[in-house]
Write a structure and sequence with these properties.
Radius of gyration: 23 Å
Strand order of the largest sheet: 1-4-3-2
Number of helices: 20
Subcellular location: Membrane
Helix content: 40-55%
Keywords: Heme, Iron, Lipid metabolism, Membrane, Metal-binding, Oxidoreductase, Transmembrane, Transmembrane helix
Family: Belongs to the fatty acid desaturase type 1 family.
Largest sheet: 4 strands, mixed
Pfam families: Cyt-b5, FA_desaturase
Order of helices and strands: EHEEHHHEHHHHHEEHHHHHHEEHEHHHEH
Structural class: alpha/beta
Pathway: Lipid metabolism
Length: 457
């Protein structure tokens, strides 16, 4: 059943846009959903998807984002208790794009696209089990370098493929139960991948809300190694990491060469995910759901992985195994970066009812996202993330349905003269590399003309 406006609970006071903006400036977290104003200030720290995903919507119309991420019962049962009034009629603006987005959401529910094919995920689990057992057997019982390489490739394939299912679980896109999918995601990601599903959810939800914003989106904040915008030369402050991303000596070395080093840097991406995962589970500045379960899971991973490594005959074999098993997962990181690295990083304004307003949730997704066009047999390689636009618009749809949903989204985009970005795999790589090269040249020009632009300590 599609998400509907919360039931009206008696007479509500009117809240003007001016009052709402003033209260937000004073630190309150007020959002608008279906023209009603909700005060989430006291609750925001308990948000299961992380507080930042909510804080980024403060003072804004969050209707479409709420529809994207939440099941209908959130609108009918939980949201009404936070209602503090209705937005003044003169301040209400509903974009035609939002109307189409909500209409399509209802249509997708009616057509059954939110329903899960559990046989699909059962097959995935069987595949993961076979890969894990093969990895252990080839490393422990194997007596040759070839068997160790085969084991490492099984590990890389397991982590590559399991990441896609853990991604679905993080979006509650499997059972559509937040608790059930989160616990399943922990069992898969933490115990067998060494990564925190909670960290991923907090990071990824922010990414969906503020996609490709250099100051807010952690998925494009990879200083000092990569920069998708020349704005990073200005030592931007990351609201996600709560620190300045300094354009330091390392950035001066890497960024002008990033289009040459892109694939090499991606090959080391998994090591960074470990660091972020451990930093998350030990964080004290925000709530960490299932903290101990996550810590136990990641600890279990390192127990069995180190046990496996202990059966290798030499330090050379151990180092080689770690590098092969981790660096071959480069294909996962490549798919993730192709989705956004080449897209716009400049916030847009749109004209609605004669007023210049922020773009809608759907318009942002279409502007900042790239799809990869490929035959069905390549779905294994891309894991459904090649249909990134459909996923960003409706993240709770199981990925096995995204191919069928994509034509409907293309029609919606065409109806509103919005561009749908789609490339084949080779062209997508070329496009992203071209953007990285352009930014590298822009940064190089800034540094050569005015080296003082870079703040050094």
């Amino acid at each position: 059943m599609a998400a509907k406006a919360p039931a009206r609970a008696g007479a509500q006071r009117t809240v003007t846009r001016a009052e709402m903006d003033a209260r937000v400036r004073d630190g309150e977290v007020l959002v608008v959903v279906h023209h009603r104003v909700y005060n989430l200030t006291k609750w925001v720290k308990f948000h299961p998807g992380g507080d930042l995903a909510v804080r980024h919507m403060a003072g804004k119309d969050a209707t479409d984002a709420m529809i994207a991420f939440h099941p209908p019962e959130v609108f009918s049962e939980r949201l009404p208790r936070f209602c503090v009034g209705e937005l003044a009629p003169e301040d209400r603006i509903t974009s035609p794009v939002s109307v189409s987005y909500r209409r399509l959401e209802a249509k997708l529910h009616e057509a059954g696209f939110f329903k899960t094919d559990y046989f699909f995920y059962a097959r995935e689990l069987i595949k993961f089990t076979a890969l894990w057992l093969a990895m252990l057997y080839l490393a422990v019982a194997g007596k040759s370098t070839l068997s160790y390489i085969a084991s490492a490739l099984c590990a890389a394939t397991l982590w590559h493929q399991a990441s896609f299912v853990a991604h679905d679980a993080g979006h509650s896109g499997i059972s559509h139960s937040r608790v059930g999918d989160t616990l399943f995601g922990i069992c898969l990601a933490n115990f067998f991948g060494g990564l925190s599903i909670g960290w991923w959810k907090r990071n990824h939800n922010v990414h969906h809300i503020v996609t490709n914003d250099p100051e807010h989106d952690p998925d494009i904040q990879h200083m000092p190694f990569l920069a998708v915008s020349a704005r990073f030369v200005n030592n931007l402050y990351s609201t996600y990491y709560n620190r300045v991303m300094e354009f330091d000596a390392a950035a001066r070395f890497f960024i002008p060469k990033q289009h040459f080093l892109f694939y090499i840097i991606l090959a080391f991406g998994r090591f960074n995910l470990y660091a972020n995962s451990w930093a998350y589970v030990f964080a004290r500045s925000y709530m960490v759901p299932y903290r101990m379960f996550e810590i136990v899971g990641m600890s279990f991973f390192w127990v069995w992985y180190i046990w496996l490594l202990s059966h290798l005959p030499s330090w050379g074999h151990i180092v080689g195994y770690v590098l092969v098993s981790h660096m071959v997962t480069v294909f996962l990181h490549l798919q993730i970066t192709l989705s956004h690295f080449g897209m716009s990083t400049v916030e847009e304004k749109v004209l609605v009812d004669g007023k210049l307003v922020e773009e809608t949730f759907a318009e942002k997704a279409l502007r900042t996202t790239m799809d990869i066009e490929c035959p069905r047999w390549m779905d294994w390689f891309h894991g459904g993330l090649q249909f990134q636009t459909a996923h960003h618009l409706y993240p709770r749809i199981p990925r096995h349905n995204l191919r069928a949903v994509t034509p409907l989204i293309k029609s919606m985009a065409k109806e509103h003269n919005l561009e749908f970005h789609e490339f084949n795999f080779v062209a997508g790589n070329r496009y992203v590399l071209g953007v990285l090269e352009q930014v590298a040249h822009q940064v190089g020009t800034v540094l050569s003309v005015d080296p003082s632009k870079v703040h050094m300590h």
